[in-house]
Amino acid sequence: MKPVPRKILNVPQIASSEITPESVWLDRRNLMKAAAAGALVNTLPTQAAAAPAAKPLSYSQAKCDACSTEETLTPVEDATSYNNFYEFGTDKSDPAEHAHTMITDPWSVEVSGLVNKPGKLNLEDVLGGFDLEERIYRFRCVEAWSMVVPWIGFPLADLLRRFEPTADARYVAFKTLYRPEEMRGTRSFTSVIDWPYKEGLRLDEAMHPLTLMTVGLYGKTLPNQSGAPLRLIVPWKYGFKSIKSIVSIELTDRQPQTSWQELAAHEYGFFSNVNPEVDHPRWSQRYERRLPSSLFKPNRVPTQLFNGYAEQVAGLYAGMDLSKYY
Ligand code: MTE
Q1: Do the beta carbons of residue 92 and residue 191 sit within 8 Å?
Q2: Strand ranges, E, within the chain
Q3: pLDDT tens across 209-231, in order?
Q4: If we measure between CA atoms, which residue out of 168, 171, 162 comes closest to residue 250?
Q5: 243 lines ligand 1 (CB under 6 A)
Q6: Where are the domains of the chain?
Q7: Is there an atom of ligand 1 within 6 Å of 248 CB?
Q8: pLDDT tens sequence across 154-189
Q9: Which atom of ligand 1 lies nearest, measured to the CA of 199?
């Protein structure tokens, strides 16, 4: 097994932007709550989105209880400046600084493997062909920081059903774009990931209604550093399962290899369900730093089993020893 460089796995430092116009977001939230009482669809552009190319999206409000939360939103500046996207470097600020070099238009996603109708989806089919909704989810990184983000997307299940998984399909394997000329982190001699970045889910996890194919955040299309134009969000799992900038989805009958398992399987399991009872070998998972967080205001909150989504997802793991299948 390759050694894991300290830089990649270090518990991160303080969020770079601690002064944030949160009021912009709170105002908008109240507006949207008011709007939700009447027409569901809204096209309010946000003033605070970060990436220059971000476009406003049309979407409806979340349709299930667990799809939203009253918790304070993480300001957009924090969510889009404190990122993990190793294709662009290992510092939290690298993705916001360098991911603009990734070309995201045109874009297509290939769906292959154990499906009756393999094929490709262009970005236009993705943006125009599914009902987009906003989901306000807690997002918990394995490094013990967390955010609350209004994502925009649609259930991954809606996409998979179009390609008709066969009866033999048991797992879903995802891959990120790999274009070294546009991704400075992949060219770095200190890079230890065997690119492209790979992730996977069991089919029942992939089909779960909380699993979101995500195309936007804070009312607009995803900025590159957040995984434009299409990423996964699996809110009850550690953030590294939420693979960014997806170009390939393959249905398989075997558990796929993931990038983090390849690097350090004893530290990063296939399931990676958020669990305060199962510590990472090098740090506790009992608490998390809710961004924005600083040395003087760490904003430490207790971590919840399945990141607070146990009622919705615990059944997927009935009878499994969660410390063994971590
Ligand atoms: N996807 C790709 N392709 N490359 C990455 O380095 N990092 C993962 C995940 N998806 C990563 C990725 C990790 S470790 C986390 S915590 C989340 O993205 C971070 O998402 P965010 O930057 O939007 O907070």
Answers
A1: no
A2: 108-113, 119-122, 133-140, 145-155, 171-176, 198-202, 212-217, 220-221, 231-233, 246-252, 287-290, 300-302
A3: 999 999 999 999 999 999 999 99
A4: 171
A5: yes
A6: 16-317
A7: no
A8: 999 999 999 999 999 999 999 999 999 999 999 999
A9: 1
Pocket test for ligand 1, best of 80, 84, 148 (most atoms within 8 A of CB): 84
Q: Which residues pair with 137 in a beta bridge?
A: 149
What residue owns the CA closest to ligand 1's atom 11?
A: 85
Cβ of 84 closer than 6 Å to ligand 1, yes or no, is yes
Q: How far is the CA of 4 from the centre of ligand 1 (A)?
A: 17
* CA distance linking residue 27 with residue 23, whole number of Å: 6
| Domain 16-317 CATH (choose: 3.90.420.10, 3.40.720.10, 2.115.10.20, 3.30.200.20) | 3.90.420.10
- Regarding pTM above 0.85, the answer is yes
DSSP state of 190: T
SS3 236: coil
Closest CA to 241 of 163, 306, 154: 306
Question: In a 10 Å sphere around its CB, with 0-12 CB exposed, 13-18 middle and 19+ buried, how is residue 282 labelled?
Answer: exposed
Identify which of 88, 146, 195, 240 to mutate to test ligand 1's pocket (most ligand atoms within 8 A of the CB). 240
Beta bridge partners of 246: 176
106: its two tokens: 């045109």
Q: Is 90 in the pocket of ligand 1 (CB under 6 A)?
A: no
> What is the rounded distance in angstroms from the CA atom of residue 15 to the CA atom of residue 207?
34
Mutate to test the pocket of ligand 1, among 73, 88, 244 (most ligand atoms within 8 A of CB): 244
What are the CA-CA distances from residue 105 to residues 63, 122, 128, 140, 230 (Å)? 30, 10, 15, 29, 11
Determine the 3-state secondary structure of 283 from DSSP. strand
